[in-house]
């Protein structure tokens, strides 16, 4: 029997607000434990939450970017459970009336566009962290993270393969980063992913029993964890067993998922509307303002890069995966760079150099205009493409402009016919055997002659002229 | 006349004229506390050192010509309102060592107005009860008969005002906790409209019902305190962004033509005949003042207690989850985390609090939510509609505050349901969110005070205060003092 997977993802995204969702504490990551807390996020008696308007705005921004309906009436609910990192004994979340519903995003799988439904996006507060230190029979609690605003983005069970899930996660991350609402760092936990997975025989309409896989804490594990879980479920079924509804934990060291708790052991969170927070009513005017302030989103940008700049899909996709990269590209083109050439240099040499130093495009020592100016030198024939590689590396290293480097190092291309001819004549005179073999039909030797001439001219010969003259001389 | 026996406005006048100092008043109140507190047990914590400092500051202000509205006035604060650096226990063992590092909004406003904190008063643990017998520490006695309870949960505040152990007090009211003890102690207790007064720093019992209000010796003082504590607070989303009137401005206006609704559902078969008579006499007094008593109906009254005990306990079960021994308050050692949780809560909470946590946990449980919590919310809407409908025809609604005068200690402790019914006339007001006051309207043959309740429209405390003052000025009840 052939099976297909049915996958829905629940993604938690930490919002990039300066302050927490219900108090004025900083959200900065990595501070000393319990230094970013106050009576409100610690849950002391008598304190009350007040909603951070920026968090609401970020949720609406995200909802609009993901084609959601923004609820005119929305409210917070309490999710009740006991845990030391949850100081109030409940998490303020949204349950019955989330801020965003009924959206979708598009992913590309095997060159086909596929819509993945977004069931809902809701706001909630993050919990703190329990820290295990030393061998004692106790843990420490750090409440710095308590109250950091989160969005939970819940997809429809529209995903059919681990690859689609990975594409969905990538797309989600790209959109969140475009919007500036989340930094999308899975390793640091600012983006977290839980997956609901079931399988069914191909052709069957009904869903199978699903398992929830938690703790997928890196991009590279999204596919691996799901592949494992799907295989596990197929094996259980084929061995005559039954999938049980349960929560499973992904163990990245062992590369497997393990049962954490069954449905029977699941918490009863006793959700009810939080009486400390008034219902949220969002005016259409504000929604319109937020919509108007949305940046150009990656899908639109990618399409425009194809139609406006004539880039191949592959280039457009890569260049638009990060907003800052796309902006660097456009800035370079605006400074006079020919789009495809800019794309080639960015995807090739620039990315290589940045990756070597683990730098992002924001930290790039080069200005877009510097790359554009260098490309102009190539176009004018001042330097060859080959020399440009050296110039580019030097430019990156020193921050100097291409023209200055070319002058300083005497890298200007020689387009003087006489000089090139003379160099060719010298090489031909020194290589009678090779000339003979070439004339006998060994055309591969053309490269040898080009190399020898270039060597003699320190790489500065105009390659087009060199080729033309050489061919003339040899035939 | 001893200074401690006076009210805010009289003392303010004397301070203004330089006839007394803030130090004199505080000394007088503390002399009274020394004399009667052993009998009454109104306080959980006395704050003499703070009081003296605050009185000194008040005297400095007054000398410098900067007298504030409450300069030098000693007030008692129910011990469920957070006071920075001062024990705030909620009369619970689980918070018996809790010292808040922050000040509640209401007490911040009192501080800005120059008040003197006389101490923190006793209550039923976490404000859950009608007699202070659920206090984790001790039971407060009714100043009119120390074998009887003062009512609750703000029994400490009401008894302290009645026994002149303070000039005025703040209480909190979730289902009658200001009005019922005010009635049983013969003082004035006002529960403002939900949203009128900030709850920030009030330790939550049932967040959608809790409201802070004044307990005073007379109606004028109630209006003075309302002017101070009311208003939108950016720290409390549920505080209403509504302009504030001058509550004292209506004091002394006549009430001719005012329509006062008398709901038949509040005059029950079998209610205490002396209470019934006192309230019916009060209706006659209103009539003689030119107001017009009108029959009204609040048909869903009979469901109020049931709906209240579902909603209040649901919210309480969640509000009290934070007392887990992890961060502050009482912690019992345990074998592991779960054991520590269970022992801390088992030893830290009293029986009534545990009962309500269990009830509320049950009513919110998956599978029961619709039958209990949701249904109770629907009933709440019906009760609110009852009031909206009645208020189309009348300006105020008049009822007894409590079906009985103060009962004896221990009389109802074995029967929680009987205890719950002590709030039968006050609970609907919290469910509807409307304001209500209790003012003295007579005494029983055993010399126990009887209170009447006036209920107003949303955010119309002015009409309540206007009518209350008019009634008070035409009677002598508020002038009687218990014989201690």
Please sum up the structure shown.
The complex is a heterodimer of chains A (475) and B (484). Chain A is 39% helix and 20% strand.
Q: Could you give a short account of the major beta sheet of chain A?
A: 9 strands, mixed
Number of strands of chain B: 11
CATH superfamily of the domain at 3-258 and 464-479 in chain B, by name, is: Amidase signature (AS) domain
Average of the residue pLDDT scores of chain A:
91
How large is the share of residues in beta strands of chain A? Answer: 15-25%
Overall geometry of chain B = globular
Radius of gyration of chain A: 30 Å
Strand content of chain B: 5-15%
Topology:
The complex is a heterodimer of chains A (475) and B (484).
Chain A: E1 3-14, H1 53-65, E2 69-70, E3 73-74, E4 77-80, E5 90-93, E6 100-109, E7 112-125, E8 129-131, E9 140-142, E10 149-155, H2 162-179, E11 191-201, E12 211-216, H3 219-238, E13 246-251, E14 256-262, E15 272-273, E16 280-281, H4 284-292, H5 298-309, H6 313-319, H7 323-334, H8 339-356, H9 368-379, H10 385-398, H11 402-408, H12 417-430, H13 432-439, H14 446-456, H15 463-474
Chain B: H1 8-17, H2 22-40, E1 43-46, H3 48-63, E2 74-78, H4 105-112, E3 116-121, H5 155-162, E4 168-173, H6 179-185, E5 188-191, E6 211-216, H7 219-229, E7 259-263, H8 273-288, E8 292-296, H9 304-319, H10 337-348, H11 351-364, H12 370-390, E9 396-400, H13 416-420, H14 427-432, E10 436-443, E11 449-455, H15 461-473
Parallel strand pairs in B: 2-3, 2-4, 7-8, 7-9
Antiparallel strand pairs in B: 1-3, 4-6, 5-6, 5-10, 9-11, 10-11
Helix pairs in contact in B: 2-3, 5-6, 7-15, 9-11, 9-12
């Amino acid at each position: 029997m052939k099976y297909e997977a049915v996958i829905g993802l629940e993604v938690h995204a930490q919002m990039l607000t300066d302050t927490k969702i219900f108090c004025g504490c900083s959200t900065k990551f990595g501070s000393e434990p319990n230094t970013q807390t106050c009576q409100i996020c610690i849950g002391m008696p008598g304190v009350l939450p007040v909603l951070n308007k920026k968090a609401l705005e970020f949720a609406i921004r995200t909802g609009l970017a993901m084609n959601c309906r923004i609820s005119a009436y929305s409210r917070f609910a309490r999710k009740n459970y006991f845990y030391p990192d949850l100081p109030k004994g409940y998490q303020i979340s949204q349950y019955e009336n989330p801020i965003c519903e009924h959206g979708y995003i598009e992913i590309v799988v095997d060159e086909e566009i596929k819509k993945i439904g977004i069931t809902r996006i809701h706001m909630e507060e993050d919990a703190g962290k329990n820290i295990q230190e030393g061998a004692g029979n106790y843990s420490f609690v750090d409440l710095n993270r308590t109250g950091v605003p989160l969005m939970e983005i819940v997809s429809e069970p529209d995903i059919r393969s681990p690859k689609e899930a990975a594409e969905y996660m990538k797309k989600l991350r790209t959109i969140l980063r475009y919007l500036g609402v989340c930094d999308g760092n899975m390793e640091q936990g600012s983006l977290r992913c839980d997956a609901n997975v079931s399988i069914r025989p191909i052709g069957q309409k009904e869903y199978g029993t699903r398992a929830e896989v938690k703790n997928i804490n890196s991009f590279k594990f999204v596919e691996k964890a799901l592949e494992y879980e799907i295989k596990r479920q197929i094996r259980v079924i084929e061995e005559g067993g039954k999938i049980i509804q349960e929560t499973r934990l992904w163990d990245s060291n062992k590369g497997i998922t393990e049962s954490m708790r069954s449905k029977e052991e699941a918490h009863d969170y006793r959700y009810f509307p939080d009486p400390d927070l008034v219902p949220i009513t969002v005016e259409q005017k504000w929604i319109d303002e937020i919509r108007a302030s949305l940046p150009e989103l990656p899908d639109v940008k990618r399409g425009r890069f194809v139609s406006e700049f004539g880039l191949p899909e592959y280039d457009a996709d890569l260049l638009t995966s990060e907003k800052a990269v796309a902006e660097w590209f456009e800035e370079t083109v605006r400074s006079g760079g020919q789009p495809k050439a800019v794309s080639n240099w960015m995807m090739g040499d620039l990315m290589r150099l940045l990756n070597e130093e683990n730098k992002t495009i924001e930290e790039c020592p080069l200005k877009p205009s510097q790359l554009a100016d260098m490309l102009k030198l190539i176009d004018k024939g001042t330097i060859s493409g080959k020399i440009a590689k050296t110039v580019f590396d030097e430019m990156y290293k020193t921050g100097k402009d291409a023209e200055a480097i070319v002058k300083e190092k005497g890298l200007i291309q020689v387009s003087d016919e006489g000089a090139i001819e003379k160099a060719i004549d010298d090489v031909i005179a020194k290589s009678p055997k090779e000339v003979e073999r070439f004339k006998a039909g060994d055309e591969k030797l053309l490269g040898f002659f080009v190399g020898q001439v270039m060597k003699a001219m320190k790489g500065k010969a105009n390659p087009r002229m060199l080729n033309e003259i050489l061919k003339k001389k040899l035939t | 006349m001893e200074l401690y026996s006076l009210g805010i406005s009289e003392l303010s006048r004397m301070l203004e004229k330089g006839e007394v100092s803030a130090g004199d008043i505080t000394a007088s109140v503390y002399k009274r506390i020394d004399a009667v507190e052993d009998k009454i047990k109104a306080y959980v914590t006395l704050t003499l050192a703070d009081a003296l400092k605050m009185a000194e500051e008040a005297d400095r202000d007054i000398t410098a010509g900067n007298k504030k509205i409450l300069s030098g006035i000693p007030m008692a604060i129910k011990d469920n309102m957070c006071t920075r650096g001062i024990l705030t226990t909620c009369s619970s063992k689980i918070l018996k060592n809790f010292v808040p590092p922050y000040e509640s909004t209401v007490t911040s406003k009192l501080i800005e107005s120059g008040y003197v904190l006389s101490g923190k008063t006793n209550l039923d643990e976490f404000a859950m009860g009608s007699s202070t017998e659920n206090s984790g520490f001790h039971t407060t006695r009714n100043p009119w008969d120390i074998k009887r309870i003062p009512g609750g949960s703000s029994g400490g505040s009401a008894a302290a005002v009645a026994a002149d152990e303070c000039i005025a007090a703040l209480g909190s009211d979730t289902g009658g906790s200001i009005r019922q003890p005010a009635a049983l102690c013969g003082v004035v207790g006002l529960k403002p409209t939900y949203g009128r007064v900030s709850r920030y720093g009030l330790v939550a019992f049932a967040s959608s019902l809790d409201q802070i209000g004044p307990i005073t010796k007379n109606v004028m003082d109630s209006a003075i305190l309302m002017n101070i504590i009311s208003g939108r607070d950016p720290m409390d989303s549920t505080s209403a962004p509504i302009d504030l009137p001058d509550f004292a401005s209506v004091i002394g206006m006549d009430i001719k033509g005012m329509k006062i609704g008398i709901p038949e559902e509040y005059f029950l078969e079998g209610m205490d005949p002396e209470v019934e008579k006192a309230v019916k006499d009060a209706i006659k007094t209103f009539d003689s003042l030119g107001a017009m008593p009108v029959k009204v109906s609040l048909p869903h009254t009979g469901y109020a207690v049931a709906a209240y005990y579902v909603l209040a306990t649901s919210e309480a079960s969640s509000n009290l989850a934070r007392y887990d021994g992890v961060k502050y308050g009482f912690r019992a050692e345990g074998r592991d985390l779960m054991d520590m949780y269970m022992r801390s809560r088992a030893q830290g909470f009293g029986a009534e609090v545990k009962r309500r946590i269990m009830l509320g946990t049950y009513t919110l449980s998956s599978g029961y939510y619709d039958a209990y919590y949701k249904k109770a919310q629907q009933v709440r809407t019906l009760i609110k509609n009852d009031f909206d409908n009645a208020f189309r025809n009348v300006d105020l609604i008049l009822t007894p505050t409590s079906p009985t005068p103060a009962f004896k200690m221990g009389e109802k402790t074995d029967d929680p349901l009987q205890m719950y019914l002590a709030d039968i006339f006050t609970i609907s007001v919290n469910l509807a969110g409307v304001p209500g006051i209790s003012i003295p309207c007579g005494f029983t043959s055993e010399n126990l005070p009887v209170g009447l309740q006036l209920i107003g429209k949303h955010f119309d405390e002015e009409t309540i205060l206007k009518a209350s003052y008019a009634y008070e000025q035409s009677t002598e009840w508020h002038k009687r003092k218990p014989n201690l």
